[in-house]
Design brief:
The structure holds two protein chains of two kinds. Chain A contains 14 helices and twelve strands. Chain A is α+β, with helices and mostly antiparallel strands. Chain B has helices spanning 15-19, 45-54, and strands spanning 2-5, 24-26, 33-35, 60-63. In chain B, the strands form two sheets. A two-stranded antiparallel sheet of chain B has the order 1-4. Chain B has a two-stranded antiparallel sheet with strand order 2-3. Classes of the chains: A alpha+beta, B alpha+beta. The complex binds protoporphyrin IX containing FE and iron/sulfur cluster.
Chain lengths: 402, 64
């Protein structure tokens, strides 16, 4: 028996705005039943407060099935992950036990001290290389991809020479235009890669970096961390750490290149870079198909009754454009008074890497436009190829002239 | 104003430290929130309220 339901909106009309159907849903049916892209049924939440509530309610479990996979690929919670998703799919108190193995390396203080000097150096090197290279270049290949790859390699202690392999595997895994078999092949590559790297590090005495620290935790007497979990965490950090930030960097550059007023504002007021990055995160909300949770018991969200076991998806791109919380939500405004947004999620699973992503964006964007004040698109904005099927919305390629 | 933190709830996202560094810090080992000023001076009230509002884990409680 299948319910007749409207589909979750996924098609964009304007490249930087979420599907326009969200505007009507948010006003008329902020918590409503839909059919997800893979054919499963559940609830879609399009308002900010209700979305925040879903993420912070302990009765909502993070152990959820996917909803954004291709047509027909419906599966059970956790079952489709080819690698151990560890704390991403855990609830309290287990989630904290694992996440806290990592949090010390992701605080603003630690990022500032241990990664910022490295970020400063590699960004300048890459800008020098652009200056020495052809006038027209692809911003994705020149900056948006290499910087996050270098940073995650530095953090984890992964050799940067291997970037082509792990980036390619990540792309295959995250592209919802690919079949399950193809995506699993990408994931399998990442698992094999991290497994081998862990073995190598063990053989040579672990050394530096977060992966080595995790190996030491796993190898300690009586440790709860299994090898399967250690490898799962390594895979997770490797792909979550570079693909997201690369997507955000490319789209942020496109946004500034197509919004001269905002670009000028930032050039005139460099101190606005913090608020500007938060606003770009809100405006772009790259996790384009939202995130799911499963009700652990019967409960109510926005006056609707959700039954135990039902899937609830928060459409963060819609919630981050909720006019109840953000005035003129469809315009990027670097003077916006904003307490928080949902681009990194909310609740205890809120992005672990957010301070790293911020550090990279805050370094790259102002330096790029200061160094190349005449930077412009090399083709009409409508012709910039967009990655519409990726879990993270992105530009595939961004040809610009310096 | 009186602030109470619940270490058990903290997920170490560091949002509190970003908005109110005079009042909140994080432990080096595991990123758990550390309260520097349980009774902050009045000029800190606004940022402390903001820190409590941004904390994704509802680990900061403010009594006024
Ligand atoms: C702009 C860039 C980024 C965006 C938009 C982003 C987005 C997100 C979102 C929305 C979540 C919440 C998932 C959920 O609630 O189910 C998340 C979780 C996570 N992110 Fe990010 N992320 C970014 C960068 C990073 C970076 C640089 C890293 C690592 C270095 C990272 C590592 C993680 C991890 C490990 C989690 C799981 C946290 C948990 O379940 O407790 N992310 N991210
Ligand atoms: S914002 Fe909340 S969860 Fe994050 S470090 Fe501060 S108290 Fe902990």
């Amino acid at each position: 028996m299948t319910e007749t339901l409207p589909p979750m909106p996924v098609q964009r009309t304007r490249p930087l705005d979420p599907p326009l159907e969200y505007d009507q849903l948010r006003e008329e049916q902020p918590v409503t039943r839909v059919r997800f892209p893979n054919g499963s049924a559940g609830w879609l939440v399009t308002r900010f407060e209700e979305g925040s509530q879903v993420f912070s309610d302990p009765r909502m479990s993070a152990r959820r099935p996917r909803h954004d996979t291709p047509e027909g690929e419906v599966s059970e919670a956790g079952e489709e992950a080819p690698f151990n998703p560890t704390f991403v799919m855990m609830d309290e108190p287990d989630h904290s036990l694992y996440r806290r193995l990592l949090t010390g390396r992701f605080t603003p203080k630690s990022v500032q001290k241990n990664l910022q000097p490295y970020i400063d150096r590699i960004v300048d090197e890459h800008l020098d290389a652009i200056e020495a290279g052809p006038e027209t270049f692809d911003f994705v290949q020149a900056i948006a991809l290499p910087i996050p790859c270098l940073v995650i390699c530095e953090l984890l202690g992964v050799p940067y020479e291997d970037r082509d392999g792990f980036h390619h595997a990540t792309e295959i895994m995250m592209d919802m235009a690919n079949s399950r078999e193809e995506r699993d092949r990408g994931a399998k590559w990442l698992i094999d890669y991290i497994t081998e790297l862990v073995a190598k590090k063990r053989a040579t005495g672990a050394g530096e970096g977060l992966l080595a620290e995790l190996i030491r935790v796993a190898d300690a007497e009586g440790s709860f961390l299994t090898d399967d979990e250690l490898i799962g965490m390594g895979v997770l950090l490797l792909f979550a750490g570079h693909d997201t930030t690369a997507a955000m960097m490319g789209l942020s550059a496109l946004t500034l290149l197509t919004h001269p007023e905002q670009r000028q504002d930032l050039a005139d007021n460099p101190a606005k870079i913090g608020p500007a990055v938060e606003e770009l995160l809100r405006y772009l909300t790259i996790v384009q198909f939202g995130l799911g949770r499963v009700a652990k018991e019967d409960l109510e969200i926005g006056g609707r009754h959700i039954a135990k076991g039902e899937l609830v998806v928060v459409a963060m791109p819609a919630a981050n454009r909720d006019p109840r919380v953000f005035d003129n939500p469809d315009t990027p405004d670097f003077d916006r008074k904003m307490t928080r947004h949902l681009a990194f999620g909310y609740g205890v699973h809120q992005c672990l890497g957010q301070n790293i992503a911020r550090a990279e964006l805050k370094t790259v964007l102002p330096r790029l436009f200061a160094r190349f004040p005449h930077l412009r698109l090399a083709l009409p904005a409508e012709e910039v190829p967009m990655d519409t099927y990726g879990t993270n919305y992105a530009v595939k390629k961004l040809m610009v002239t310096r | 104003m009186k602030i109470a933190i619940e270490e058990d709830k903290c997920c170490g996202a560091g949002q509190c430290v970003l908005v109110s560094p005079e009042v909140f810090d994080q432990r080096d080992e595991d990123g758990i929130v550390v309260l520097l000023e349980p009774n902050p001076p009045q000029e800190q009230y606004a940022t402390v309220r903001e820190a409590a509002a941004v904390c994704p884990a509802a680990a900061i409680e403010v009594h006024e």
